[in-house]
C-alpha cells in the first residue's frame, strides 16, 4: 500500500506545511512512515492502525468524531473497516492540522478510489463532524453531509448515539468529557475581565450550559462577521468538547464550530 507517493523531500515538506513550517530543519529525517505493509485495521470509526516499516502506527482521522455508545460504536467501526478494505492498496493518508497530536498519533485525511473516507462515514451517519481550528477547510461541506444524514435518520443518528442536544444541564451531564453538539437559544452574553466572551443559555451561569470564546480567538469570529456579543436571542448550534465548568460548557476557538439556526429575535418594546 502507499502512504504518500512523493519522495522523502516532498514528504518532509508536506509535514512541515501541516505543522506551520515552510521548510524542514536541515539534516532532519521526515518523521512519517513509508509504504504500508498489510491491511489497515479500524480501532473505532475515527481511529485506525497501519503497519509500516516494521512498526505500528496509529492514525486519528481528522475532522470527525465517532459515537462512543453501543451499538453504534461497533457498527461505525465496522463501517470504517469496510471502507479501508475497499480502498485496499489505494488507501491514501494526507497530514492534517498539526500532523500529529500531543500523544504522537498521526492526524490525517484518508481517501480511497471512491473519495474521502471521512465524508463517506458522515454521509452514512456513523460519525459527526468535529471541527478544529487548525483544520477548518472541509468543515462547511461536512456540515451539509451531516445534516442530510441526521435528517434521514441514518446510522448512529437512528440509534440516538449521535444527537443534537438541548441545553438542559442535567440532560447534558452524562455526555461530559466527549465531543457533542448542543443547540439552543442564547439567553444573554457577557464578557469577563480577562476578555473572554460568554454565551449563556440559561438564567444561572453557575449551573446552566455556557459557551466561552477566549480573547485570543475572538478575531477569527470577527473576520467572518460573527458578532458574539450580538447573539443574544439567537438560536445557535455549537460543537466541541463538552466539559464541566460552572455547569456544562463548550469552548469555541473558531467560527466554523458555531452554526446560526435562527437570527436574534428583535427586542419587544413595552406596549407594542
TrEMBL record:
PROSITE patterns found in the cross-reference section: PROKAR_LIPOPROTEIN
Protein's name according to its UniProt entry: Nuclease
Domain TNase-like, chain residue ranges per copy: 33-159
Family annotation (Gene3D superfamilies): 2.40.50.90
Amino acid at each position: 500500500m502507499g502512504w504518500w507517493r512523493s519522495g522523502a523531500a516532498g514528504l518532509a515538506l508536506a509535514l512541515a506545511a501541516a505543522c506551520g513550517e515552510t521548510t524542514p530543519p536541515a539534516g532532519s529525517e521526515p518523521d512519517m512512515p513509508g509504504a504500508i505493509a498489510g491491511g489497515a485495521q479500524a480501532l473505532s470509526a475515527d481511529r485506525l492502525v497501519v503497519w509500516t516499516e516494521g512498526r505500528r502506527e496509529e492514525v486519528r482521522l481528522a475532522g470527525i468524531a465517532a459515537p462512543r455508545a453501543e451499538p453504534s460504536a461497533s457498527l461505525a467501526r465496522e463501517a470504517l473497516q469496510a471502507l479501508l478494505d475497499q480502498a485496499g492498496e489505494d488507501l491514501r493518508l494526507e497530514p492534517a492540522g498539526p500532523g500529529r497530536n500531543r500523544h504522537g498519533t498521526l492526524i490525517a485525511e484518508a481517501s480511497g478510489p471512491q473519495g474521502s473516507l471521512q465524508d463517506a462515514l458522515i454521509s452514512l451517519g456513523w460519525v459527526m463532524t468535529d471541527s478544529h481550528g487548525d483544520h477548518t477547510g472541509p468543515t462547511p461541506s461536512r456540515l451539509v453531509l451531516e445534516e442530510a444524514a441526521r435528517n434521514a435518520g441514518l446510522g448512529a443518528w437512528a440509534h440516538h448515539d449521535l444527537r443534537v442536544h438541548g441545553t438542559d444541564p442535567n440532560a447534558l451531564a452524562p455526555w461530559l468529557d466527549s465531543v457533542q453538539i448542543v443547540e439552543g437559544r442564547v439567553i444573554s452574553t457577557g464578557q469577563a475581565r480577562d476578555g473572554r466572551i460568554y454565551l449563556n443559555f440559561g438564567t444561572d451561569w453557575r449551573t446552566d450550559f455556557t459557551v466561552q470564546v477566549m480573547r485570543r480567538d475572538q478575531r477569527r469570529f470577527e473576520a467572518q462577521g460573527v458578532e458574539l456579543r450580538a447573539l443574544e436571542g439567537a438560536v445557535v448550534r455549537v460543537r466541541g468538547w463538552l466539559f464541566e465548568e460552572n455547569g456544562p460548557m463548550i469552548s469555541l476557538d473558531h467560527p466554523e464550530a458555531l452554526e446560526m439556526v435562527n437570527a436574534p429575535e428583535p427586542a419587544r418594546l413595552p406596549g407594542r
